[in-house]
Every structure is written in structure tokens, then in C-alpha cells.
Amino acid sequence: MACSLCEVLLDWFHQHGRDLPWRHTRDPYAIWLSEIILQQTRIEQGTSYWLRMMQRFPRVELLAAATEDEVLRLWQGLGYYSRARNLHAAAKQIVDRGSFPNTYEEIKQLKGVGDYTAAAIGSFAFALPVAVVDGNVYRVLARYFGIDTPINTTEGKKLFALLAQEQLAPSQPADYNQAIMDFGALQCTPAAPHCMECPLMESCTAFRTNRVGELPVKLKTVKVKTRRMTYVYLRCDGETVLRRRPAGDIWQGLWEPFLIEGAEVHECEGTEVCGCEGEEVLRNGVLTPLRQGVKHVLTHRILLADFYLFECKQKPALPEGYQWVPETSLHQYAVPRLVELLFEVVDNL
């Protein structure tokens, strides 16, 4: 073992490590599935999705054979939907090659798998001696060694990757990687870490120099933007309108109702809408405001949405991409959470 840090973390883990369902298997498929789900997702939320996916797709062949729509529906509510599309594509890669890859470099070739995920799968499933580096690892190492190099710079990423590898227990890579991540999640937390009950307190540089709250350092580089969206639920003779969102934007591949962006919707004489790009669609019917200024927060943007209901007796011509579907079949379409909220409002009318 490289140092006492490793020994202390392993001892702590054997007493306090989290009991997670995917830790009771060495099946690389089950472990890979858990790691993709847990990207950008809390364990509390991700666990139910993992159980659901494993029940529906207990083998990678079943996942590969599914339609993208089915995968997206099971993923609905988790966000970051590119993960689901990558998961589906990677399942096909695995089936095509005949088995799950068992080296770090080969695992990294799977769609949607980067350095961290490959290290996690490799160490947990195949005992490969490769250290993981995630937010928890950055925090523990930065505080313990007193490192103020920003973690989101090229220099910082290289530094922490080398340091993490130096601490790894080659004979117990799975336990060590799980130990340092659990330690960061439960003990050395971002806010209000449990320093006074920490087994590393005496040797922790940040604690001894009173810099726990300052580390790790991360440069602020992304500006959050606000985007306005207007969703109109069209209703005619038991049907409504949906389209699949195109590539190159948020929620690629998910479905949504009639969308107006870049213009304000307002009523004209109570039955028409004018002054917006939906003017030709939203004629000869009744427009009802449902909810205004619904806030939905994504990683680098804030969405502000207005919801409307438009009821008509004759179906209007639709822009390209939109189609009429029975309202009773909406549950068959994978939609973003913001659209789910609109559907819930309509259902409660």
C-alpha cells in the first residue's frame, strides 16, 4: 500500500461503506449500468432506476435489442438523456464484439464511457489497478494533501490523476476506489464535513491549516443562461400534438407538444393567437393560459416556460415534424420533466 491514507480509508470503508445493490456482483454489465446511471445522479434517485433497468433488461443483449424510445421511457426523469442514448449504443457495441471488454482502454472505447467510468468498471468488475477520480476523490485528496491547483484545469486533472493512482491499493483496487468515494460522500462532505470525527484529522493538511472550506479549488468558467419556452397543449377530438426533439439541442430524441420560442403568446379577441410564430396553428379555437413562468433548472441554463391549452374542433395544419397522437397514448412517449409538468396540469383540469 502506498501510504497510511490508503490503510485508513480501507479500514473506514469496512466499517462505514455504503451497501449498494451493484456492489454485490462482479457482473460488468450490471456495474456499467450503475455507473452510467450515477453520472450526474444522486445514488438515492439512481438506485430505483438501476433496479428497474435490470429488471427490464437483465442482459446486455436485451438492452441492445430494445428500441431507443423504450430506453428513453425507462430513463424518463433522470435527465441528461444523452446518457441513455449512449447506453443503448454501447450495449450494441458490446453485443457486436461478443463480450464485455475487460481492459481499461477497451472499456473506454464504449460510447459514453470516459476515464472515471472506465476505471470504476475496470476495478469493480475485473480488479484492474486503476484509480477513479470523481468529485469526491478530488475533495478528499485536495484537502488531505492541501492542494489548491484548480481541479477543472488541465494541470489539475493531471496532478490529481497521478496522485490518485499513487494512493491506490493494487491488491484491493475495488475496495479502495469505493472507500475514497464513500469517504468523500459521507465523511469529507462538500459542506459541513465531519472533521472532528474524522480518522484523518491529525494528518489532514486542510484541517491543520484551517483551509477545509477553501478546498478543492474550482474555476468558475460557465455562465448560466436563461431561455424562454412556450408550450401549447393542442387538443382536438381526443388527440394532441407531439414532435420528437431534433439533434443538437437539449432533450434530443425526446417528445414535446407544440413549442413556441422567441415570441410572446397573447390572445386576440379570445379565440386566436397573433404576433407569434404559432399564429397559423393557433386559430379557430380557444386558448387558455394554464401556468406562467414555470422554472426548470438545467446544468448551464434556466428554462422559464409558459403553459397553454388550445382546444379546437378542426385540426389545423402543423409545422414539419409534428404529428397528432391519441391523448390516451401519451404514456408511451418519453418526454422531459418540463413536459411531464404540463401533462400533469392538463390532467388535473
Topology readout:
Elements: H1 4-16, H2 28-37, H3 43-56, H4 60-65, H5 68-75, H6 82-97, H7 104-108, H8 115-126, H9 135-145, H10 154-167, H11 173-186, H12 205-208, E1 225-235, E2 239-244, E3 255-256, E4 258-260, E5 267-268, E6 272-273, E7 285-297, E8 301-312, E9 323-326, H13 337-347
Parallel strand pairs: 1-8
Antiparallel strand pairs: 1-4, 2-3, 2-9, 5-6, 7-8
Helix pairs in contact: 1-11, 2-3, 2-8, 8-11, 9-11
Distance between the termini: 63 Å
The percentage helix is: 25-40%
- Shape annotation: elongated
Biggest sheet character: 4 strands, mixed
Provide the succession of SSEs: HHHHHHHHHHHHEEEEEEEEEH
Radius of gyration: 25 Å
Runs in which pLDDT lies below 50 for 5 or more consecutive residues are: 267-275
Strand share of the residues?
15-25%
How many helices?
13
Q: Average pLDDT value?
A: 92
User: How would you write the strand order of the largest sheet?
Assistant: 4-1-8-7
Could you say which structural class the secondary elements and strand pairing correspond to?
alpha+beta
Beta-strand segment tally:
9
Describe this structure in words.
This protein is α+β, with helices and mostly antiparallel strands and 349 residues long. 40% of the residues lie in helices and 16% in strands. It contains 13 helices and 9 strands. A 4-stranded mixed beta sheet has the order 4-1-8-7, with helices on one face. A 3-stranded antiparallel beta sheet has the order 3-2-9, with no helix packed on it. A hairpin with a 3-residue loop joins strand 5 and strand 6. The termini are far apart. About 3% of the residues have low confidence.
